[in-house]
Amino acid sequence: MTSPEPQAVSPFSVIATVDDLRKSIRQKSKLKGRQSDDVSISEVRDLIGDAPAEGHPRDLLIEYLHLLNDAWRGLHDRHLVALAKEMNIPMAEVYEVATFYHHFEVLKGDAKAPGLTVRVCNGLPCEMAGAENILARLPVLLGNPDVRVIAAPCIGRCDQAPAVAVHQTVIAYATPELVMAEIKQPNKNLPASSEKLNFSASDFTEKSLIVPSHGGPADYVGYQAYREAGGYSIAAALVNCEEDSDPVLKAMEDSGLRGLGGAGFPAGRKWRIVQAFPGPRLMAVNIDEGEPGTFKDRSYLERDPHRFLEGLLIAAQVVGIRTCYIYLRDEYHDCRAMLEKELELLRADPPCELPRIELRRGAGAYICGEESAMIESLEGKRGLPRMRPPYIAEVGLFGLPTLEHNFETLYWVRDIVEKGPEWFSSFGRNGRKGLRSFSVSGRVKQPGVKLAPAGITVQELVDEYCGGMQDGHNFYAYLPGGASGGILPASLNQIPLDFDTLQPYGCFIGSAAIIVLGHQDKARDAALNMMRFFEHESCGQCTPCRVGTSKAARLMQADAWDNDTLDDLSQVMVDASICGLGQAAPNPVRSIQKYFPHEIGVL
Asked: Average pLDDT, stretch 427-436?
């Protein structure tokens, strides 16, 4: 029997036919994920315009999201897909930015946006003034499911508590009835410039009512009025080389002016540091002012915007900066409209060559008050704080050396240069030097911005500048530095209020937001309000802050606190949080444990 001839064996095995391969290629050529449609692209282009040859700037993502959110009362996911295509960035990146900020409403599928959103501030001053009652009564009075009523963190009107925002209109000293009236007949009044007004904050130094609080739009110093009163003459002299920059820089250093956003870094030294780095250099101005109890920047801006803008021009010229970015919190809608108008007037009739000035809009994120988070937001990203070093003075906005300043720091530049550094440093009490703008709210008769000498005590501030305590309230406690500055009892009412004076007591002055509590209030309730605020505003980037604030808020609701666990949480948050939010969040907790043990079950 013969064996069959062996067959040739191919070294390759066929796994697919030619037709199979063609089908696979056709399937892979289809884009994954949701694709944009022509209608949505057209609607997006109507708002953001056609892309320039080099494409839409990546840093304008948040500005474009605002345009969509305003026009459609929310961000429909089909518009987000179209925006990602138009900007040539991943949809995931657009979505993560849109969902990071509180003021963006992302709508999926056919979901509809509420016809109107009413935000009731539940920050501590507003809570003390009855915000909970408004939150409880409004939905019942409205009886309209198309109007959404929500609690919102501080909206910067602590001196006008309780405050409510009806869409983009703020109701000061709000009641349910006032809110109802605004909903039925919206008030279209906007701040108006005055050619007769010559407001200067320095005229209010050491007086009882420093910057009066207004329940509605206030007249402000317009461009022409400011110019006629000598405004922009210093900036023009510097830019036109009629004056030298060195004396200006020395005046800033000699004045002792420190950053007034909270950190307190010497302003003149910061100018010199950034000036030393090779250009191009940028400037970023922080007007995010989200610290509960703080409203000084808004108060000055809505009365005297050009004094701030001249300070910006002077700083830009001295440091050698050609592009400036102003980051304004979204809650200040009237201020933004006014500032846009006045910037246009300035550009139309400039007193000198101007740097490029970009006004950018925040989107409801307290964390963007932290300088590196603000830089990230200005770049159109989520406001996540950066690890440092490098510091933003060297590697800041778009990777360039950046001079970052709080609004009020720049606001005083003209006065210091014009009147001399000795003028600013001549004020002070208890061995301290300079002026401080205290945002005072709570149980005082006359809340508002008080321009007082550095080193004044809280008792002097209440008695001399605020008309004393409200009727029926005795001074019990105070927060010397807003949400994160800690809480002190009235028995410590003689501590000079300034940078570096409160640290021995476990507190700090920060942006000088003073919230005064009466004997009918509980300090532990104030601390819980602050911790809930931090929980709500944590960016979530680091676990100690994200989890620690949430866990602490739950523990602080118990009648008797678990102090051992709270101590452990506090230490981890201080040691391991990336930025100042998590590091400072335990301050109110530790203050209660130290100064108010009787309120938490400790005898």
From this structure: 94
> If you search the block for the tokens 């301290």, which residue do you land on?
432
This prediction has a pTM of: 0.92
Segment 110-143, tens digit of pLDDT: 899 999 999 999 999 999 999 999 999 999 998 8
pLDDT, averaged across the chain: 92
Tokens of 441: 């709210």
Cβ within 8 Å of residue 368, ≥6 positions away:
288, 290, 327, 362, 374, 377, 383
Cβ 202 vs Cβ 304: under 8 Å = no
Structure tokens at 167: 């869409």
Q: Point out which residues pair with 480 in neighbouring strands.
A: 482
Q: CA angle, 80 as apex, 79 and 83 as ends, to 5°? A: 85
Q: Of 590, 389, 483, nearest to 158 (Cα)?
A: 483
Please tell me the number of Cα atoms within 13 Å of 311 on its side-chain side: 24
Per-position DSSP letters for 294-354, written without gaps between them: --HHHHHHTT-HHHHHHHHHHHHHHHTEEEEEEEE-TT-HHHHHHHHHHHHHHHHS-SS--
Considering only CA atoms, which of 566, 456, 473 is closest in space to residue 514?
A: 456
Q: How far apart are CA 302 and CA 194, in angstroms?
A: 12
pLDDT tier at 12, thresholds 50, 70, 90: low
Residue 211 C-beta-side C-alpha neighbours within 13 Å: 29
Indicate the pairing of strand 513-518 with strand 435-442: parallel
CA–CA distances in Å: residue 134 to residues 152, 174, 175, 542: 12, 8, 7, 35
Mean pLDDT of all residues in 237-254: 97
Count of CB atoms situated within 10 Å of the CB of 257: 23
CA separation for the pair 427, 252 (Å, rounded): 16
Helix, coil or strand: residue 251 = helix
pLDDT, residue 329, reads: 97
Q: Phi first, then psi: what are they for 149, rounded to 5°?
A: -110, 120
Beta-strand runs (E) in 100-181: 106-107, 116-121, 147-152, 164-166, 169-171
Which string of b and e fits 316-327 if b means at least 16 CB within 10 Å? bbbbbbebbbbb
**E-assigned strands of 4-105?**
75-76
* Distance from C-alpha of 262 to C-alpha of 482, rounded to nearest angstrom: 10
Give the pairing of strands 116-121 and 106-107: unpaired
Q: Which residues pair with 120 in a beta bridge?
A: 151, 164
Neighbours of 293 (CB within 10 A): 29
Cα–Cα separations (whole angstroms), residue 603 to 391, 523, 527, 561: 46, 16, 19, 12
d(CA 307, CA 34): 49
String of b and e for 501-532 (b: at least 16 CB within 10 Å)? bbeeebbbbbbbbbbbbbeebbbbbbbbbbbb
The encoded tokens of residue 347 equal 């550009």
3-state percent breakdown (helix, strand, coil) of the chain, nearest 5: 45, 15, 40
Tell how strand 321-328 and strand 281-287 pair up: parallel
Mean pLDDT of 577-587: 95
Long-range contact list for 541-545, CB < 8 A, 24+ apart?
Answer: 541/384, 541/385, 541/578, 542/576, 542/577, 542/578, 542/582, 543/576, 544/572, 544/573, 544/575, 544/576, 544/577, 544/582, 545/573, 545/577, 545/578, 545/579, 545/581, 545/582, 545/585
How many distinct helices (H) and strands (E) make up the chain? 25, 17
CB 516 within 8 A of CB 441: yes
Residue 475: which H helix or E strand, with range?
strand 475-483
